[in-house]
Amino acid sequence: MPILDRIFTAQGSPNIAFVKYWGKRDERLILPYNSSISMTLDHAVLRTVTSVMLSEALDEDVFYLGGKPQDLGDRELKERMQILEILRKAAGSDARMLIASHNHFPTASGMASSASGIATLVYAANAALQAGLNAESMSIIARQGSGSACRSMLGGIVMWRKGTRADGSDSYAQQLFAEDYWPEVVDNIVVVSQSKKKVSSRAGMKQTADTNPLFRSRPESAEARARNLIEAYKNRDMGKLAQIIMAESNEMHALMLSTVPSIRYLNTASYALMDAVEQLNMSVGETICGYTFDAGPNANIITTQEHQPKVSKMLKEFLEDGSVQYVKTSKVGSGPKMLDDPHAALITKDMVKEHIG
Ligand code: DP6
Known about the structure:
The chain is an alpha+beta fold. The protein has one domain: Ribosomal Protein S5, domain 2 (2-Layer Sandwich), CATH 3.30.230. It has ten helices and 16 strands. The strands form four sheets. A six-stranded mixed β-sheet has the order 8-7-9-6-1-16, with helices on both faces. β13 and β14 form a beta hairpin. The chain is globular. The chain starts with 6 loop residues before the first strand and ends with a helix. Ligand DP6 is lined by residues 17, 20-22, 30, 36, 112, 114, 146-148, 201-202, 294-295. The site of ligand DP6 has 15 residues, from α5.
């Protein structure tokens, strides 16, 4: 039974995809054509905090983001928030929720806030509803809010298994490697632009899957890359890992570019960073770092602590000439967790007074 009028607060983080999800075989259930793999980022660097409170006095869900009330009638938000209905069904409850969420990201870092936000919300609501769902079941729900969100349901290196069933019951996230398996891995989040992307991932991937004949070979190629990536990570082989993630990022962006009409997320600074990574690897005589880009121009440069000073030095030049705005470094992070400190709660007395009385 859900506990009414108590605040449940959780914290979670975004993830960066090493093997990308780009294309849905089922748009309603959000089922992908291929499995994807990501690294969950460190809560200390990027995190979402979300509080959930259930009350019988509410006749509809209420959602605050960054302290501001959101319009749950908005088409996109409504689509994503269907996860609340799914959660209620799973918990056998009809309790409405007062939700307050905040993304503690460096200003518009270009990181996918929806993945972090949805995963954290599912985690907090699962506790509030006393639904008792495990990570796998929660990832199936998060997936239906935003595909990549299912991978933020766990820490470490996470695989979203594409599954084959039509109802999506075998399309969920699983941890491949715990965060302490290879703790030396570092992600440099390199911010070159803070503007909102012109084409959303959702619209962009649909356009690619619908119009691009090259997309036909994509699922097979992504699955093969996933197998190789698991092998490289298992062997803690940064050279191989970096080569795989660069090839993967390039393949996805080539697919975007060859979509009709063409979708281009990378800019001049992104290409300059790709050049610099390749030059650094060449000058060292081995692959010590690799880049990957999601649906935007900001780079994620993966390396190990051993080689981080060289990568930092390379990035310093970009920071100095202004083509990079700032860099955040993240180690491999853990999955969402509950915050027991009542001071962490984001639901204020005013919110309660206004909506519950
Ligand atoms: C390029 O998960 O944001 O970051 O499922 O439509 O909400 P929806 O899309 P979303 O797409 C993420 C695309 C990507 C690659 C990835 O994270 O795997």
